[in-house]
């Protein structure tokens, strides 16, 4: 009996949907299986009483995100749908917000750094500029810093570069521990994304590309996949409704989940899968009755709270400053990001108490916050972002050199780069690897091209 599908994709995040999109364009029959009742994965948004709430966090640089911009163009996304943010990042130090974090102007304004630290920042930026092109986000192991951690690299500079720049950025954005996480992916992403002044956002929620992709794909939500087996002829997916067979499968899920689903993975895959750890994440979205924000000399859309200043919060995202459409007129929307050091404790507590603790802590930076909260939502991801540890970097070359197989992978963890651009690139790469083995028949391809696009559905 012939397999039911050409390709089965597990996971309806941006990596899985991109993979399915590319394979369907090539004429293959593809179905996406998603355990959750919605698409988007870590790029999910939801709507509530006029608020648009992102469960993750996403910025879209005007440069460097080539694969993402090409995908958005194919989906018909217009410039109006991805407006410039127009606000900056700040860091809290000595009782006040300092704007200009991750901005070239920090060399002049300081952005929380002392004059001596600014000199070392200039030295650090000059060093990374000298090696521009050597920090490739597709090959993080091929860089001048090797497997050095962020903390190790920072020891060659003034301590403030670690405490008031690198640590708050990687801790608040990725949940990384600077002593565990490799510096190469961070520097590559910094060079790719460019200055904050050129960053954009999705005006109607970060799930915009996922929703557009799913409109034209066969997506089955609410369907967990328990195991994926390559029997030497085809791939079988075990689901609650029974087995599904395919000529190939793509696991577009975090590495720890992929390792569990595919226990028969060859050793050159398993070593990297096992080494590719993820950081957890916990956030509280606060729906406000007025647009509060941390006081700052210049408008901010995010304030990072470094470890020396704060032990419960990693940062505050001012979502209504990111785009005014995220909250009703006259209202506000903030996201409180938990400090990575406290996430295990917070995730084990009652969600309501966790929210109350973070809101009380945030009142130090946003006066009047507790009294302005109309409603709140707690978001928690076990596998939030790839951790990019030195062991993962060490195993990546062998994984990248493996031959194309019936079971492939997609996700930002493939390049240890915590960004949607890495997820989109991984989806295109997974599709290319599948197409090197699985080819549509000319008749079938013509029939599929003429057929109406499938719609997302629940089983």
UniProtKB/TrEMBL annotation:
* Annotated region described as Disordered, given as residue ranges: 440-459
UniProt domain Amine oxidase: residue ranges: 14-435
Has the keyword Oxidoreductase been applied to this entry?
A: yes
- Molecular function via GO: oxidoreductase activity
Which key words tag this protein in UniProt? Oxidoreductase
Membrane-spanning parts: none
Q: What is its EC number?
A: 1.-.-.-
Which residues are in coiled coils? Answer: none
Does the record bear Oxidoreductase in its keywords?
yes
Q: What is this protein called?
A: NAD(P)/FAD-dependent oxidoreductase
Q: What is the species of this protein?
A: Streptomyces solicavernae
Specify the taxonomic lineage.
Answer: Bacteria, Bacillati, Actinomycetota, Actinomycetes, Kitasatosporales
């Amino acid at each position: 009996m012939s397999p039911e599908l050409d390709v089965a994709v597990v996971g309806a995040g941006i990596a899985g949907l991109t993979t399915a999109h590319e394979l369907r364009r090539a004429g293959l029959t593809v179905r996406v299986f998603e355990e959750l009742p919605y698409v988007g994965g870590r790029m999910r948004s939801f709507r509530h009483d006029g608020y648009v709430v992102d469960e993750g966090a996403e910025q879209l640089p005007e440069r460097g995100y080539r694969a993402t911009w090409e995908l958005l163009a194919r989906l018909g996304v217009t410039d109006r749908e991805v407006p410039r943010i127009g606000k900056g990042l700040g860091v809290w130090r000595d009782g006040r917000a300092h704007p200009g974090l991750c901005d070239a102007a920090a060399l002049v304004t300081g952005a929380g750094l002392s004059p001596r630290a600014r000199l070392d920042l200039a030295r650090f930026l000059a060093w990374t500029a000298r090696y521009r092109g050597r920090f490739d986000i597709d090959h993080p192991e091929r860089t001048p810093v090797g497997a050095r951690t962020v903390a190790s690299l920072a020891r060659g500079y003034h301590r403030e570069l670690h405490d008031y720049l690198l640590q708050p950025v990687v801790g608040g954005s990725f949940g990384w521990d600077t002593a565990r996480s490799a510096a190469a992916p961070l520097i590559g992403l910094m060079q790719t994304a460019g200055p904050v002044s050129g960053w954009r956002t999705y005006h109607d929620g970060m799930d915009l590309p996922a929703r557009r992709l799913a409109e034209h794909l066969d997506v089955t939500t609410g369907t967990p996949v328990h195991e994926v087996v390559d029997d030497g002829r085809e791939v079988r997916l075990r689901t609650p409704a029974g087995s599904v067979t395919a000529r190939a499968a793509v696991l577009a899920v975090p590495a720890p989940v992929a390792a569990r689903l595919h226990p028969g993975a060859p050793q050159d895959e398993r070593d990297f899968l096992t080494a590719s750890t993820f950081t957890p994440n916990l956030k509280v979205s606060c729906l406000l009755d007025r647009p509060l924000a941390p006081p700052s000399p210049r408008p901010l859309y995010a304030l990072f709270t470094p470890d020396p200043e704060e032990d419960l919060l990693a940062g505050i995202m001012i979502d209504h400053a990111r785009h005014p459409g995220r909250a009703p007129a006259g209202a506000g929307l903030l996201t409180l990001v938990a400090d990575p050091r406290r996430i295990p404790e917070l995730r084990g507590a009652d969600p309501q108490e966790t929210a109350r603790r973070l809101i009380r802590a945030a009142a130090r930076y946003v006066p009047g916050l507790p009294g302005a909260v109309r409603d709140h939502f707690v978001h928690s991801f076990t596998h939030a972002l790839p951790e990019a540890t030195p062991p993962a970097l060490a195993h990546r070359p062998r994984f990248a050199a493996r031959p194309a197989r019936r079971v492939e992978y997609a996700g930002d963890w493939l390049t240890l780069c915590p960004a949607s651009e890495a997820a989109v690139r991984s989806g295109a790469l997974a599709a290319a690897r599948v197409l090197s083995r699985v080819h549509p028949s000319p008749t079938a391809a013509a029939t599929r091209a003429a057929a109406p696009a499938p719609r997302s559905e629940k089983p």
